[in-house]
Amino acid sequence: MKVAVLDIKGKETGRKVDLLDEVFAIEPNNHAVYLDVKQYLAHQRQGTHKSKERGEIAGSTRKIKKQKGTGTARAGSIKSPIFRGGGRIFGPRPRDYKQKLNKNLKRLARRSALSIKSKEQAILVVEDFNFEVPKTKDFMQVLKSLGLENKKSLFVLGDSNNSVYLSSRNLKRSEVISSSELSTYKILNANNIVLLEGALEGLQSNLNK
């Protein structure tokens, strides 16, 4: 699949690159996509939630009333879960939410997500660019030239570029990552994917295994 390479002004450079059908034009596997997105969201959870159970509540251990003759249910501790301020029954405990997926399934999920975006014509290939100094204004001009100023966009770089990254950091609708950070969730979460020319070779060789 041939795609025209654009410059940062949104104009065609006259060059075309070949996007592999094995990466950008497969039949999407929806279940693989679901599992990969589910794993990504699970890994965002800290798992530090905790509530005190009756054994951890500070309070008196004396029997709060006599066993019989009160006309109410017997009660032995003020820390009982049935009383206000008592411990919580089966409360949350710290846990690790990480899930394991094999590499082949994760590659399939990313190829499926890229194929979905390719079918929607939401993938742009732009020649490599850089800024002399980080400026949000310059990055916004690139977005405007590409017609992405009001859309959620994901820029994928071949190598980490500090000036481009810092220029985009204040923009809520745009994210800049390196090709090694690309995930199924990030692909699907963006309206448009902007692949820099230098990222293509490594991205395609990594996913086409």
UniProtKB/TrEMBL annotation:
Assigned keywords, A-Z: Ribonucleoprotein, Ribosomal protein, RNA-binding, rRNA-binding
| Subunit (UniProt) | Part of the 50S ribosomal subunit.
Gene Ontology molecular-function annotations? rRNA binding; structural constituent of ribosome
Q: Which GO terms describe its biological process?
A: translation
For this chain, the family text in UniProt reads: Belongs to the universal ribosomal protein uL4 family.
Can you say what this protein is called? Large ribosomal subunit protein uL4
Q: Give an example GO cellular component term for this record.
A: ribosome
**Role this protein plays:** One of the primary rRNA binding proteins, this protein initially binds near the 5'-end of the 23S rRNA. It is important during the early stages of 50S assembly. It makes multiple contacts with different domains of the 23S rRNA in the assembled 50S subunit and ribosome.
User: Per its UniProt record, what HAMAP family does this chain match?
Assistant: Ribosomal_uL4_B (MF_01328_B)
Against Pfam families, the record matches this protein to: Ribosomal_L4
**Which residue ranges are recorded for the region named Disordered?**
45-77
| Taxonomic lineage of the native organism | Bacteria, Pseudomonadati, Bacteroidota, Flavobacteriia, Flavobacteriales
